[in-house]
Amino acid sequence: MANNSADQFFPRGPRSRSPRGRMPSSIGYFVLAIVIAAVLFFALWWILVSGGDDSPWLPAGLAASVVLLIALSAREVVMRRAWTRYLLENGIREAPRSRSRTSGRSQKKTLSSSFHSAALRAIQKQSTAADRPGSSPEMHLDVAQLCHDYLASTDEAIKSGSFGGEKGITIRAGQERVRGLHRHHLLTWARGHSQFLAHEAQQRARTFDKIETATKALDCIDSALRAYPDETELNDSRVAIQEFIASVKVAHWVELAERSAFRGHYRRAIDRYRDALFYLNQDVVKEEVRTAGTEKIEREIESLKSRIRSNKE
After folding, report:
1. CA 149 from chain center: how many Å?
2. Cα dihedral 186→190→193→199 (10° resolution)
3. Which of 27, 44, 81, 276 is the most exposed place for a label (fewest CB within 10 A)?
4. What pLDDT digit, counting tens, does each position of 235-289 carry?
């Protein structure tokens, strides 16, 4: 059930199966990082020389050094993910046609079982790293993605009849552990990332920026709820963010109404107060907040109507 629901969160395209996959290489990673840094260095150097800079090598060298430092710091994460994906993509591979059908099936089962065991160990290792204090929510999302890939790969192998007996039991036990890890890391990512976005939305100055950032937090929670719709904490967070968005809209229209009233545009102020009432009467707003806000706005509307009548008289 969790694996089927996860497909909604991690859409998967058709998996291409090449005869031989390329093994991840640390040397290749370093060579690529050095090439990128060198290209950046010469590009900045040429731009600065064209602009008449007296010492173009200094900022160019600094930028290239920063790129190398970032590449070195990210090497462990990148290579670990590359190895895990390599294991997953090559775990259920067809045996060479030149061999007999019986020996080919036996080798396929052994190869698939060992690769999936190695992939499971890599996922557990990355899960432990993501659970360390100070880790970013994106690390949890990476683990959830790897868990989804593992579940899809093992499901395909089981349906094809590659595993049976004791090996099949072992693979299914691994799937249960990975499903638990998928749930844990996906929900941890959703909580952490949505809380960060909600806090950022509160710090924004403009109304549009507040609503846009809070909507991103809402999208983050909805992504996790598509996989685990019964998660109480996420549903509560979703309601809280919706209430925040409604309060921002109400405050925005009330502020516009007060400005219009200050300038003597009473009818325009009444219309804007009514816009505020529209967002205040949404279901996500708490009853006590809705009642108190509605009474206050209606008093302001009646006061403005009295001013309009006085001006006519």
Report:
1. 16
2. -160
3. 27
4. 999 999 999 999 999 999 999 999 999 999 999 999 999 999 998 888 778 888 8
Cα separation, 137 vs 194, in Å, equals 10
Amino acid (1-letter code) at residue 148: H
* Secondary structure class of 251 (helix, strand, coil): helix
d(CA 79, CA 64): 21
Q: What is the CATH number of domain 241-312?
A: 1.20.58
Tokens of 242: 């919706």
**Which of 167, 17, 11, 13 shows the shortest CA–CA distance to 90?**
17
Contact at 8 Å (CB) between 190 and 234? yes
149: tokens are 């890939």
Residue linked to tokens 């001006």: 311
Looking from the CA of 34 toward its CB, the CA atoms found within 13 Å total 6
- Domain residue extents for the chain: 2-11+22-92+100-230, 241-312
Backbone dihedral angles phi then psi of residue 118, each to the nearest 5 degrees = -65, -40
Which tokens in the block code for residue 210?
């507040």
Q: What is the pTM of this model?
A: 0.58
pLDDT digits (tens, 9 = 90+) for 192-225: 999 999 999 999 889 999 999 999 999 999 988 9
How far is the C-alpha of 294 from the C-alpha of 311, rounded, in Å? 26
177/154 Cα distance (integer angstroms): 13
Report the largest interatomic distance among the alpha carbons of the chain, rounded to a whole angstrom: 104
Q: pLDDT per residue over 13-66, tens digit each?
A: 443 444 445 555 556 667 787 888 888 888 887 887 777 776 777 887 888 888
Phi-psi region of 13 (alpha: psi -120 to 50; beta: other; left: phi over 0): beta
